Amino acid sequence: MDNPVPTPLLGQIGAALYGPHWRNPVAEALGVRITTCQRWANGAARIPPSVAPELLALIDARLPELLEARRKLIEWIDQHPTD
To answer: Domain range spanning residue 25?
Structure first.
């Protein structure tokens, strides 16, 4: 028997990537209907293990952008001390 992706993990990943209204963007990114994503999110349907690599790819795609934003923010903080 397969092991579904845990519902709370989907919610955590979705919110981290897209904020509190993550269901539509996740559904679009995964190429599934919004109703499918909603059913996954509320636990009415199991999240297939095949979705896990797709979620990982979404995370990996955002990492460079987030790391660059982090680098720029650190640079700005260093140039504008609050003391």
So the answer is: 7-79
pTM, entire model? 0.85
**Count of structural domains within the chain:** 1
Residue 1 inside a domain? The answer is no
H or E, element range at 52: helix 51-79
DSSP state of 21: T
From 28, 31, 4, 26, select the one nearest 13 (Cα to Cα). 26
The set of long-range contacts for 18-23, using a CB threshold of 8 Å and a minimum separation of 24, is: none
pLDDT at 82: 82
Question: What integer pLDDT is reported at residue 2 of this predicted model?
Answer: 80
Please state, for a pLDDT cut of 90, what percent of the chain lies above it: 93
**Which amino acid is it at 31?**
G
